[in-house]
Amino acid sequence: MNKILYPIKFEPILKDKIWGGQKLKKILNKQSELTNVGESWEVSGVEGDISIVSNGYYKGKSLKDLLKILGPDLVGQQNHRIFEDKFPLLIKFIDAREDLSIQLHPNDKLAAERHDSFGKTEMWYVMQADEDSNLIVGFNQKVTPEKYLKHLEDKTLTEILNFDKVNKGDTYFIEVGRVHAIGAGVLLAEIQQTSDVTYRVYDWDRVDDEGNERELHNDLAIDAIDFDMSDNFRISYSKTENKSNEIVNCPYFTTNYLEVTNNTIKKQNKKDSFIIYICVEGEATITYNEYIESIKVGETILMPADAVDFEIASKKAKFLEVYV
User: Fold this and answer.
1) Which string of DSSP letters, residue by residue, matches 144-183?
2) Per-residue pLDDT tens for 95-154?
3) CA-CA distance, 133 to 207, in Å (whole number)?
C-alpha cells in the first residue's frame, strides 16, 4: 500500500458517564444517542478504544492499522523507536455536568509494575465553564499521608483539597501523583499519555441506578500520591496571534496555543513527530499538497510526521497544537 499522507480525522469515541452532560452534543456538535455523554475520545490508541479514521484514503482504518502502514512516516522516527506499535497520546474532550471523582494517576514505574501501562501525565484546557465552576487540584495545605488517611476515613477529604475557580482559556498541568478532579459545569480538552489507569479515592458517595457505589482504589493510591508536590499546576502562557505559544513542555508532550486570525499560517514540521490540532474555537482549513481538510470547534486533526510543509487558514480559530 502506498504511503499517502494527508490531514487525518478520526471518529469520536463517545463515553456515557454517570457525571456526563449535554455540552459535547450541544456545544461541540457530537452526534450521540447516549444520555450523559461525559467524554469524547478524539485520538486513542487504548486497547478496546482504538480510533478509526473518518476521512480520506485511510477511512475505516484504525490508528493501529495506520501505525503498521505508515510507521515512522506517521509518528516520527524516534517515537516509532520508543513506542513501536503504540500511539503515545490520548486526546479527549470532557463535559462534567456533575463533579468527577477525586482521583490521581500513578507514575510510569508504578503503572508498568501494576498494570503493564504507561503512567498518566496530563493537561487541561478549559473550553467553557459555568459561573463559579471549580477544578480540584492538589491540597490547600501541607498534608502528610497520615493526615490524608484520617480525612479520607472521616469523609472530610474536601476540607484539605484546593478548589480553583476557572474560566475559559485556563490551563492546568496535572502531573502523576497529584490529587485532582474536574468540577461540575466545566467543559475541557485533555491531553495525556496513552493510559486509562486512574486511582479513584472519593466519589462523593454516589450510587448508580442499582444503588451501587463505584469502586475506589485507596490501597493502590496511597503510595502513588506525591505529598511534596509544589503548587505549579496553573499555567500562564502568551496568546500572541498567528504564532505558536508554548503552554506545556514535558517529557511526554509539548502543547502550544495557536490563534489564527485573518491569516494563512505556513507551518514547517521539523519536530520528528506527528502534530495534533485540537480546535477549541472557530473554524479553519488545513492544506497539505492537494489535500484540504476543514476543522471546526470540537474537532481534531492529526498531521503525520512526514507531512512537513502545510498551511492553516482561518478568519478566526483557536487551536491546541500537540506533539511528542
Assistant:
1) -HHHHHHHHHTT-GGGGEEEEE--TT-EEEE-TT--EEEP
2) 999 999 999 999 989 999 999 888 899 999 999 999 999 999 999 999 999 999 999 999
3) 23
Q: How confident is the model at residue 2 (pLDDT cuts 50, 70, 90)?
A: low
Identity of the amino acid at 37: V
Residue 28 DSSP class: S
Residue 277 CB contacts under 8 Å (≥ 6 apart), including other chains: 258, 286, 295, 300, 301, 302, 303, 312, 319, 320, 321, 322
Q: Does residue 1 surpass a pLDDT of 60?
A: no
Whether the pTM exceeds 0.70: the reply is yes
Residues 96/45, Cβ–Cβ less than 8 Å: no
Q: Is 200 a catalytic residue?
A: yes
39: nearest Cα among 97, 85, 87 = 97
Confidence check: pLDDT of 208 > 80: no
Q: What is the DSSP string of 30-79?
A: -----SSEEEEEEE-EETTEE-BB-SSTTTT-BHHHHHHHHTHHHH-HHH
Contact in structure between 124 and 228 (CB atoms under 8 Å): no
- Residue 260 to residues 180, 209, 284, 287, Cα–Cα distance (Å): 32, 45, 8, 14
Residue 245 and residue 256 in contact, taking contact as beta carbons nearer than 8 Å: yes
Q: How many C-beta atoms lie closer than 10 Å to residue 29's C-beta?
A: 11
Mean pLDDT taken over the chain: 95
Q: What is the DSSP letter of 111?
A: H
Q: Which of 200, 206, 214, 234 does the annotation list as catalytic? A: 200
| CB-CB contact of 90 with 50 (8 Å) | no
| DSSP at 289 | T
Amino acid at 172: Y
The C-alpha atoms of residue 213 and residue 203 are separated, in whole angstroms, by 8
Cell numbers 501523583 label which residue?
Answer: 177
